[in-house]
Design goal:
Chain B: It is found in: Cell membrane; Cytoplasm, Cytosol. Chain B: Keywords: Cell membrane, Cytoplasm, Membrane. Chain B: One of its GO terms (cellular component) is cytosol. Chain B: Belongs to the Hyccin family. The complex is a heterodimer. Chain A is an all-alpha fold. In chain A, about 70% of the residues lie in helices and about 0% in strands. In chain A, helix 1 packs across helix 7 (about 135-155). The longest helix of chain A has about 35 residues, at about 165-200. Chain B has a two-stranded antiparallel ribbon. The longest helix of chain B has 18 residues, at about 255-270. Classes of the chains: A mainly alpha, B mainly alpha. Chains A and B meet through helix 8, helix 9, helix 10, helix 11 and helix 12 of A and strand 1, strand 2, helix 10, helix 12 and helix 14 of B.
């Protein structure tokens, strides 16, 4: 078979083997070649020499930074072959050059750099033809340039063969590497092309399987050394430029790993060494003078070297420049082929840094979630995932992941603390929270500030449990435990204002007003402008009936937090008491204005905070008026838009508000969509928590507010995939504002206006127990006892423990002389909230009417006592979070 | 205050006033040559009782109003120190001596939130969409690892707004404080490359101090001045981290790492997930060893890395299920189908 092969065919086969690095096949082919009656002795020497050298290098790869090998018997053999090939001078010029280049390479491997350079100086590398050259020769030239660069670097500066100035020399080295890299890329592209062409031509015989190309030391050096030198010299501009040149080359399979490495390195450089103002896109020219470049190494304007052929580059017109973009691609590459956990985690860290500083936690959490395939028993990745989920507001998942983190690293107090924070936040998983908090408390050897945090967390869990508990004994038990935990926290960390503040709050809830005042003052000394401490101080003062002082405190707090609705609600209450309802109504009006400016103004910007403009565009198209769903619709909702407000006063309240998009019905038109969609993270955390608390002073009313929430979530899920936390709260705020206004009107005995306000709230949350309760109040004011009773009953069917509804219902039943039922309702109410003085009072009245005077007296006394320490709003409106 | 420093400041105060507009840019270059001016200005800013503080703040604002980038950056380099002084005095409730620093900070903020035409700025950046299938999360649907035109087209670019439409602020309140400061730090970070080493030191110092003052950890520091705890906002901490990260790699290895540790300590106590997330990532990806000749040396270097590690890849293939093997076969095939280069665009 071999004999039948024609000479040219054989040569072609040899060329292919050289191109595909199949050195082990060369000796056999050379034998066939020698058998031919052709004058190819010298060529076969060359081929054998090359094959043996390459084989040697394949078996003994040179490591980066390793020292030269010196003479080896196998290398001596190579030298013999090559010398034989060269000395007769019978070779064709091309082969002559090749032999010389191989000689140079051999000399380098043996550590004789000067001799290697001498060989290279015999061949004019720059004039070697790249066009139409066989594939293997491209590789050879690329290697030759790289080797030359390596030799130049190794040799001391004063080398005779080189130009004298060190700067020129450095430049020459760089040029060598850059050329080597370019030609190497070209070579790889050609190999790929040849390979695919070859595979298509040949039948799928089981012949030599095309392996992935291995680059080898010289080509790798050629591809990477240039930018390494740039960065070493502190020349970021050119280093980045070189990175981009390599990345722009058309990709081959062999370069994929290289590309990954380089993309990662580029990302590192961009993140660590650049900023927005110093960044330039690949389409622009680099800045002439850049602070990125080390001033001590003056950049010399770009070196344009000519290559007869350049690697193909991607030549699209539309380069979009962004540094973060390059990063987001890397994990994709990396993830598909795990080089190692190490580099994967480095890439994810870089991605975290890039996305985190732009607030893209949502996207980050998705990316990290996909990283979890590397994360088996790997604490760092689990922890990062948990944190990103937390930052993205995905609390429930975050807690689950945190559990795994705790398993992996049981002695870190921060992890369970984070879990408690989530549990007592909007998840309201108090049992789990308690377990996590106990974990922290049990870690005895921690620093006091962390242990204090643990006790604080435990106290908060107990405090919330106390609020939730429906049995009085249990309530008191939890309150005691909470108080103990807070005291412990406070003594462990006396400079923490939160410990003092929550201790004060817990004391206030148990109506130990003077003690509470002491601690809240302490908290304020530590943190003068803490909004919750100020609020608590005001409520405590109002409990002592110092309404004017309380109002002053609130106004002072409002000067620091002008848009805090929680403070404003308290202000309305206090103003009604000390300055009359007119003032309170003005505050309501002011609140409407603030609401409008807050959520109107922030609308375009906040949309970018959590999600993208694209999401917004989608939201645009969907409509909000689907909110009046059949299940939730209220007979009156339809008429809201048409109702007219007769009284001039309410018109003055609403007039500013009703302008523009403020009419509630308007808000549901597509144009008004934008408000509810995206909200900056900051705002809900203050205003919204408040509202949850306002709406849900008690346990079951949390369930009721969940109904509200569910309802609105249906609405919001209809319009977009916006973060779940955001959309609700502004609407709940608005409803609360209307309800407060309604309450003020009821206090002024103006049922029509009160009803109008209530209906505004009802159009937002028709099934809210607060709205239903307010409707009952209005009906009562109008003397429609039956209607009022019906509303209260409806409110209680949604929120069975709504104390105010119970109290009013009890009174109505009392009026209707259904004493025993009234007594039952009121007793239930007292069970739910033992500190509601008005309920005690009503109960007393009912008992009195029943002739049970002793018990009635008891009730009146309790009511009296409680009233003396009752704040204008329950202390529990103040959020309890970590 | 030292006499010579004071002299430099006074000279600086007087000479800009008399400067005609045409000489601003040449003045900018001389400004950076005055070696003892910057330390003297730091001393003025650090001393709330200095009578020079008010004219200095005023002058810094004048420079910032200038259209010359170098003059603006001259002011910007003091931002960390100014923020530190402001927050510290706020925590100690010593408001009156704070006035001119507050005014300067608000002035810079109000200048920065609008563009040249006076419209509100909208800062955005581009990322490839993750909603489309990619090699990364749905490799099977894409088939090939190669960067083909098709593969890139599937990467929709999303423009994401990360900051914008901030309202003008007349005064600081507890409520808007960190909104303003975050934005100021964002501005600082967007020009951080142009800042001198003294500013990197200041930003590390500021971060460390803000994070530990009033906490038990302050006892371990050289700096023991009694001070109340300063409230910090999670987003502000993220901005501080960004600046620290830059400082670490650009000459302030030791100070930067100390600041990073202090910030993580504080983030743990505050239970803020965002700074913890970023800080952990930064700490985890730090090079193992300090650079040689630490101070002032950039650590931005790369190494020639072997690009192929055969063992791990074959290990992956061996370990993975048959579906993985299938996928890699698919992958090879589709690679071979790509024979011609594609016109395409890249993202960098």
């Amino acid at each position: 078979m071999a004999a039948r092969r024609s000479g040219s065919r054989l040569e072609g086969e040899i060329e292919r083997c050289r191109g595909e690095n199949q050195w082990e096949r060369i000796p056999e082919l050379v034998k066939q070649l020698v058998a031919k009656p052709l004058q190819l002795d010298d060529l076969s020497e060359l081929l054998l020499g090359e094959a043996k050298l390459q084989q040697y290098l394949k078996e003994n790869p040179i490591k980066q930074g390793s020292s030269p090998r010196g003479q080896r018997p196998r290398l001596a053999e190579v030298r013999k072959h090559l010398t034989a090939a060269l000395e007769r001078g019978n070779l064709k010029p091309d082969y002559q050059q090749e032999a010389t280049l191989l000689m140079g390479k051999l000399c380098y491997v043996e550590g004789d750099y000067r001799e290697a350079l001498n060989h290279y100086s015999r061949v004019n590398l720059d004039e070697m033809q790249l066009v139409g050259a066989p594939v293997y020769r491209l590789s050879m030239i690329a290697e030759a340039y790289a080797t030359r660069g390596l030799c130049l670097e190794k040799l001391p500066a004063a080398s005779p063969s080189l130009s004298s100035r060190p700067a020129d020399r450095d430049q020459e080295i760089l040029t060598c590497y850059e050329k080597s890299g370019d030609i190497a890329l070209l070579y790889l592209q050609e190999v790929e092309k040849a390979l695919s062409a070859g595979l298509q031509n040949r039948s799928p015989k089981p012949g030599p399987v095309s392996q992935d190309q291995e680059l080898g030391y010289f080509l790798e050096t050629g591809l990477q050394r240039a930018h390494v030198i740039h960065f070493k010299n502190g020349n970021l501009t050119r280093g980045v430029g070189r990175f981009r040149e390599i990345l722009r080359a058309v990709e081959t399979r062999t370069t994929q790993n290289l590309r990954m490495t380089i993309a990662r390195q580029l990302a590192e450089i961009l993140l660590r060494g650049m900023c927005e103002q110093s960044y330039w896109s690949p389409l622009e020219d680099p800045p002439p003078q850049s602070p990125l470049d080390d001033p001590h190494c003056p950049t010399r304007s770009s070196r344009d070297y000519a290559l007869s052929r350049r690697p193909r580059v991607y030549s699209g017109e539309k380069y979009d420049a962004n540094r973060d973009a390059v990063l987001s691609r890397i994990p994709e590459h990396n993830a598909d082929r795990v080089i190692s956990l190490q580099s994967a985690s480095v890439v994810y860290d870089l991605l975290t840094i890039a996305l985190g500083r732009r607030g893209q936690y949502e996207m980050l959490s998705e990316c990290l979630e996909r990283a979890m395939k590397f994360a088996f028993e790997e604490f760092h990745l689990w922890y990062q995932l948990a944190l990103s989920l937390m930052a993205a507001g995905k609390s429930a998942r975050a807690v689950k992941v945190l559990k795994e983190c705790i398993r992996l690293k049981p002695d870190d107090a921060t992890i369970p603390l984070l879990a408690v924070k989530l549990c007592i936040g909007n998840l309201h998983w108090l049992e789990e929270g308690e377990r996590f908090a106990k974990m922290v408390v049990d870690m005895e050897d921690k620093a006091p500030e962390f242990r204090a945090k643990g006790h604080l967390a435990l106290g908060l869990v107990y405090s919330l449990k106390a609020t939730d508990a429906s049995l009085r004994g249990l309530q008191e038990e939890y309150q005691r435990k909470a108080l103990g935990a807070f005291q412990r926290a406070q003594s462990l960390s006396p400079t923490d204002h939160l410990a003092a503040f929550y201790l004060a709050l817990q004391l206030a809830v148990s109506r130990q007003i003077p003690e509470a005042l002491g601690y809240v003052r302490q908290a304020l000394q530590l943190q003068g402008d803490d909004v919750h401490s100020l609020h608590l101080l005001a409520l405590l003062l109002s409990a002592q009936k110092h309404y004017h002082d309380a109002l002053n405190i609130i106004e002072m707090a409002l000067s620091e937090y002008p848009e805090n609705f929680m403070l404003l609600f308290t202000k309305v209450k206090l103003e009604t008491l000390c300055r009359g309802p007119e003032e309170a109504l003005l505050t309501c009006k002011h609140m409407l204005q603030i609401w409008k400016s807050c959520y109107n103004l922030t609308n375009p910007s906040d949309s970018g905070r959590g999600s993208s403009l694209l999401d917004r565009a989608i939201a645009d198209r969907r409509q909000l008026n689907t909110m009046t769903l059949p299940d939730f619709s209220d007979p009156e909702t339809g008429t809201v838009s048409t109702h007219t407000v007769r009284d001039s006063r309410i018109r003055s309240v609403c007039s500013t508000g009703l302008r523009g998009s403020f009419l509630i019905s308007d808000l549901f038109r597509p144009a008004g969509h934008a408000f509810c969609d995206h909200f900056p993270r900051r705002r809900p955390s203050t205003a919204s928590n408040t509202l949850c608390m306002v709406c849900s002073v008690h346990a079951t009313s949390i369930a009721a507010s969940r109904v509200e929430q569910a309802l609105s979530e249906v609405a919001s899920s209809l319009q977009s995939s916006a973060p779940k936390q955001g959309p609700l709260h502004p609407w709940m705020t608005l409803a609360q504002i209307w309800l407060h206004a309604a309450e003020v009107y009821i206090g002024m005995l103006k049922p029509a206006e009160a009803l109008a306000c209530t209906l505004e709230a009802a159009s937002l949350f028709p099934l809210s127990h607060n709205v239903l309760f307010m409707k009952g109040q209005v009906a009562e004011l109008r003397g429609n006892t039956e209607e009022a009773k019906r509303w209260y009953e409806e409110a209680l069917s949604i929120s069975p423990t709504h104390v105010k509804s119970m109290q009013r219902l009890g009174l109505i039943l009392h009026q209707l002389q259904r004493y025993s039922l009234a007594e039952k309702v009121l007793r239930d109410a007292v069970q739910v909230s033992s500190t509601a003085h008005s309920v005690w009072n009503s109960l007393g009245e009912v008992l009195q009417a029943q002739g049970n005077h002793a018990a009635a007296t008891e009730c009146f006394l309790t009511a009296l006592e409680l009233e003396a320490s009752s704040p204008v709003l329950p202390f529990t409106v103040i959020p309890r979070t970590l | 205050m030292l006499g010579e420093g004071r002299g430099a400041v006074e000279e600086w105060l007087s000479e800009f006033k008399t400067l005609p507009e045409s000489e601003f840019s040449s003045y900018a270059s001389t400004l950076y040559q005055k070696k003892n001016l910057v330390p003297a200005l730091y001393r003025v800013i650090q001393d709330p009782n200095s009578e020079l503080l008010e004219p200095v703040c005023h002058q810094l604002f004048e420079l910032y109003r200038n259209s010359d980038d170098r003059l603006r950056r001259f002011t910007l380099q003091f931002l960390p120190e100014l923020v530190w002084m402001y927050l510290r005095l706020t925590a100690s409730r010593n408001r009156q001596s704070n006035g001119c620093i507050e005014a300067l900070l608000l002035g810079i903020y109000n200048l920065e939130i609008v563009d040249k035409e006076g419209n509100s700025k909208l800062l955005s950046f581009t990322i490839p969409s993750l909603s489309k299938p990619s090699v990364y999360h749905e490799p099977s649907s894409l088939g090939s690892m190669a960067l083909t035109e098709g593969a890139l087209c599937q990467h929709d670019l999303i423009r994401v707004v990360y900051s914008g439409l901030h309202p003008q602020r007349e005064t600081f309140t507890a409520q808007n404080r960190f909104e303003v400061l975050c934005f100021l730090m964002l501005c600082y970070n967007s020009a951080v490359v142009y800042m001198p080493p003294s500013s990197y030191q200041a930003v590390c110092r500021m971060s460390s101090r803000l994070c530990v003052c009033g906490f038990p950890r302050q006892q371990q520091k050289m700096w023991r001045e009694p001070c109340n705890r300063v409230v910090l906002d999670a987003e502000f901490m993220v901005q501080m981290l960004t600046a620290i990260y830059h400082a670490i790699y650009n000459g302030e290895w030791d100070l930067g790492r100390e600041a990073l540790d202090d910030l993580l300590y504080r983030a743990q106590l505050e239970l803020y997930s965002e700074p913890l997330l970023l800080g952990n990532a930064m700490k985890n990806s730090l090079p193992d060893s300090a650079p040689d000749g630490t101070r002032g040396k950039k650590v931005l270097q790369v190494e020639v890395t072997p690009t192929i590690s055969r063992i791990s890849r074959s290990a992956v293939t061996d370990l993975s299920s048959s579906s993985h093997t299938l996928r890699s076969q698919v992958h090879i095939q589709s690679c071979e189908e790509i024979s011609t280069p594609h016109e395409m665009f890249l993202f960098f």
